[in-house]
Write the structure tokens for this entry.
Amino acid sequence: MEDAIVLSYAISGEDFTRAGEASSDVKKKLKQMGVSPEAVRKVAIAMYEGEINMVIHANGGEITVTITPEEICMVLDDVGPGIPDVDLAMQAGYSTAPDEIRSLGFGAGMGLPNMKKYTDSMEIDTRIGEGTKITMVVKI
Amino acid sequence: MTVKELMDRNLAEVVSAGEDPDREITKVFCCDLLSIAMGRAPAGCAWVTVMANMNTLAVASLADAACIILAEGARLDENAAEKAKTQGIAVLASEQPVFDLALAIYELLKKEKQEKEGMV
């Protein structure tokens, strides 16, 4: 695609306090490109939730963001344990996050529902023991 | 009311002035669960919370809050305070309870709205 801009990020699974740096960078770049504040906010929230999930559950992974004049596509790819029951994970309030994550204010089981809420489409491709790939699109 | 105008009220101590002092505060939002705040905090809100860590800053920035007000004596540690400054995130802090702070800001916003409507 001629007009596409592609941004790639390696997400470290070790440092929870750094979770969000990739999302912040995307937010900054989208703002500089003049993307509408509402679309920027949607992308920032959805991607941050995904980024945090990768850190908590999958020991990091890779995020690729493709920006075209029509839409922003985020692909979050990890080699984590996979999601055994996607329908259950999509339910608001369901969480398998450990206590130390909960004590920081996360793990309320809102991550995946938030990602769906703030994107125009979301697909989850997950395999137990192999990893999870989530593709989200926000239309501009 | 802008972030700077809120800071000038001396309601709370200024920890980090933020990159956009002229940002208009739209609403008050109270929540300590970052997972909920992420999805529900309105853009441009003054976010009152006792959750003071690095992730609070990330959530405020990504959810596009106008400023964070730490209540009940909650304080960012040195690293987080530094990060708020370098990232340009507006942070205030107070010993007051969440409700009292939120109410005070709400009253200021309400008064401003009434004054504007009175002028029309």
